[in-house]
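re: ur question from earlier - yeah i can do the single chain one, its not a big deal. heres the input i used so u can compare w yours
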Amino acid sequence: MSKIRQSSAFDHPLKTFLGVHFVLIGFDPIHKIKVLSKLVDGGGVDVGQDGPNCTHVIVDQLVYDDPICVAARTDGKILVTSLWVDHSSDIGMPVNPSSIVYRPLRDLNGIPGAKSLIVCLTGYQRQDRDDIMTMVGLMGANFSKPLVASKVTHLVCFKFEGEKYELAKKTKKIKLVNHRWLEDWYGLVCTSILKHLYFVFSNSLLSLLLETIAASTSPHLFCLQFKGLGNSSGN
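and the output i got, formated as tokens:
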């Protein structure tokens, strides 16, 4: 019976991207071939250019505010990076395209101030762990597998317990946060609030501000409060 199931699986491979009518934009030739192969093998249809029949605009090396990305969002298309294709192909089904990790970056060089962050994880497994490591890399921050007390700035905890947590708590220098902190920091600073602050503050003050946001355990509230301060500073 198991042999019959195994044979059937090979004869009828998963159509992960069935119903996905896509266009690839911004890719170098080699990367484009790899991504295109995964999509087409998974049942996706390359429509060649953005238009009425296109459901997904998949980009590489384009920023969030690029006119192509703006147009895709305005038209209601699903806008993702190639990471969405990779993750969907790996698990054999489409992952949630609205996840922040598949959003084009505001700056291809990462988030100003993020290079000073050294992030360590505890309690996260498999895909969750991979997603957080990916987000840390896209931000331009650094990831450390071991908890080096003299270097790590943030410990991202699935639960506030365990050996790493207890060690970090004793140091009183490492910020203890969970993945929501990372999502808020990545999401808010990468999108509209960062754009707003660029118009209000000088580069040196902006860098200091972003470092302060990173040090906060509630970046969402911090950003919203500081946006109001920025408005009053601009008058």
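The first helix runs from residue 2 to 11. not sure if urs matches, ping me
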